[in-house]
Amino acid sequence: MNENIMEVHRITNAIRELIKLCGDDPDRDGLQETPFRVLKAFLEYTEGYQEDPRLHLEKTFDIHQKGLILIKDIEFYSMCEHHFAPFYGVAHVGYIPREKITGLSKIARVVDGYAKRFQVQERLTTQIAAAMDEILEPKGTFVIIEAKHMCMCSRGAKKSDALTTTTSISGVFEERAELRAEFLSLIKS
C-alpha cells in the first residue's frame, strides 16, 4: 500500500512539474487537483491492460449462421502511443462463422479492450481481427477502423478534417471480392 502511495506522489509531482514547464502555476485555483485527476484519467484511458480482450470471445453459441455477421459503428476512444494524444472513431467488425458465433456485445468489448491501451490505429485494427480469428476460427474476418487523431488535428500538421481508415481482412474476405463488396456496402448503408 505504501508503495502505491509513493508512486502516486511521484507521478503527481511530475505532472505538477509539467504544468510549470508549460508556463502555469500548479498551485493556482483550478489546477491544484489536476495532477491527481490526470493520473486517474490515464489509468482509466489504459484500463485495457488489465484484461485479455480475447477472453470476451470465448462465450459462444451453437447457432447455425452461414452469412455475414457485422457490427458497425462501434465507438471507441484510444491514446496515441507517440504523443499520448487521444484518437477516436468507430470500428466495423464482421465475420462469417464456421461453427461458433459470439454475443454481439462481446465484439464491442474486444474493441474497447484493445483501444484502452497506448496504441496506433494500425495495430488496433489487426489485434481485433487476430482475436476474432484465433478464438472464433471463422471462415473470414473483416475489420475497418475510421478515426480522428488529435495528434494530427490539434498539433503538428493541424488537419482537423483528416480521417484515417485502416483495414484487416482474412480468410474468405481475402479470396472473394463479392464478400468484400457486401461488407463495404453494409457499412455505408
Task: Provide the fold topology.
Elements: H1 2-22, H2 34-45, E1 60-61, E2 69-80, E3 86-96, E4 101-102, H3 104-115, E5 118-119, H4 121-136, E6 140-149, H5 150-153, E7 164-171, H6 172-175, H7 177-188
Helix pairs in contact: 1-2, 3-4
Helix content: 40-55%
Unreliable segments of 5+ consecutive residues: none
Biggest sheet strand line-up: 5-2-3-6-7
Number of domains: 2
Number of strands: 7
Percent of residues in β-strands: 15-25%
**Overall 3D shape:** elongated
Span between termini: 52 Å
Structural class: alpha+beta
What is the CATH first-level class name of the largest domain? Alpha Beta
- Count, helices: 7
| CATH homologous superfamily designation of the largest domain | GTP cyclohydrolase I, C-terminal domain/NADPH-dependent 7-cyano-7-deazaguanine reductase, N-terminal domain
CATH architecture assignment of the largest domain: 2-Layer Sandwich
Biggest beta sheet summary: 5 strands, mixed
Give Rg in angstroms.
20 Å
What is the CATH topology descriptor of the largest domain? GTP Cyclohydrolase I, domain 2
Order of helices and strands: HHEEEEHEHEHEHH
pLDDT averaged residue by residue = 95
What oligomerization state is this entry in? single chain
